[in-house]
Amino acid sequence: MLASTPLEKKVVLITGASSGIGEATARHLAAAGHQVMAGARRTDRLAELAREVRGANGALDHCALDVTRRDSVESFVDAALDRYGRIDVLVNNAGVMPLAPMADLRVDEWDRMIDVNVRGTLYGIAAVLPRMREQGGGHIVNIASVAGHRVDPTAAVYCATKYAVRALSEGLRQESRDIRVTVISPGFTDSELLDRGGAVEAQAAARAAARQLAIPASAVAEAIGFALDQPATVDVNEIVVRPTVQG
Ligand SMILES: NC(=O)c1ccc[n+]([C@@H]2O[C@H](COP(=O)([O-])OP(=O)(O)OC[C@H]3O[C@@H](n4cnc5c(N)ncnc54)[C@H](OP(=O)(O)O)[C@@H]3O)[C@@H](O)[C@H]2O)c1
């Protein structure tokens, strides 16, 4: 059963939909009646998500996606066009956050964060922008972070990538008259973000904080749904969603 009827049924592409915020957003938007194309590298997770969503009469297709490869992002967008014939919304959500002091020189992880969080977001924009312009409209939702508003030790490079996401979103917004641009900046949110990479001590400290503070990923999904459901003339540019107790 669909939870509700959206104001307008949209074709929504979500990167990094195999866990956390992306997965919750896919579930939330499909339950609201939108047509979702979910992308990530863990296609077994996506297949399971598709089974569950379709079992509840939602529309969700999936496609293997590595946002660090421009050809993969283009194939993802082509798959959505083949399936649904248009693209209304791209949610640039895929991200990684291996935390460590800069002095550790974990340069491979710096590269990874830049590749996924910044290049991946740009590749997503490049893949949908011409199509949205042709259609005369569209909506790009970029997931930044509270870490795109403040810098903390062990998160310098991650913060730099999220400041970049906010900067490129603001530039795109200023240059666009037909495309809506929304930045969503979550605070501590329950997900798998802290499960990969980083320095042991830094990751453990962040995990301890997340255990105490984190809000469910569905809270971020609902903020994204709110931005999507506004009329085409209303561009919700920035939403910060964080735990009430987060400093
Ligand atoms: N959780 C938080 O506290 C928090 C706070 C602020 C901002 N954020 C942001 O929220 C976004 C979602 O993160 P999350 O917290 O939900 O973490 P998550 O559970 O780890 O989800 C990250 C998603 O990104 C995907 N991904 C990673 N590398 C990828 C690649 N090369 N190509 C395609 N997909 C890739 C992962 O899928 P595969 O591994 O299957 O490819 C996964 O689906 C990120 O941009 C993160 O920076 C999170």
UniProtKB/TrEMBL annotation:
<protein>
    <submittedName>
        <fullName>SDR family oxidoreductase</fullName>
        <ecNumber>1.-.-.-</ecNumber>
    </submittedName>
</protein>
<comment type="similarity">
    <text>Belongs to the short-chain dehydrogenases/reductases (SDR) family.</text>
</comment>
<dbReference type="GO" id="GO:0016491">
    <property type="term" value="F:oxidoreductase activity"/>
</dbReference>
<keyword id="KW-0560">Oxidoreductase</keyword>
<dbReference type="Pfam" id="PF00106">
    <property type="entry name" value="adh_short"/>
</dbReference>
<dbReference type="InterPro" id="IPR002347">
    <property type="entry name" value="SDR_fam"/>
</dbReference>
<dbReference type="InterPro" id="IPR057326">
    <property type="entry name" value="KR_dom"/>
</dbReference>
<dbReference type="InterPro" id="IPR020904">
    <property type="entry name" value="Sc_DH/Rdtase_CS"/>
</dbReference>
<feature type="domain" description="Ketoreductase">
    <location>
        <begin position="10"/>
        <end position="191"/>
    </location>
</feature>
<dbReference type="InterPro" id="IPR036291">
    <property type="entry name" value="NAD(P)-bd_dom_sf"/>
</dbReference>
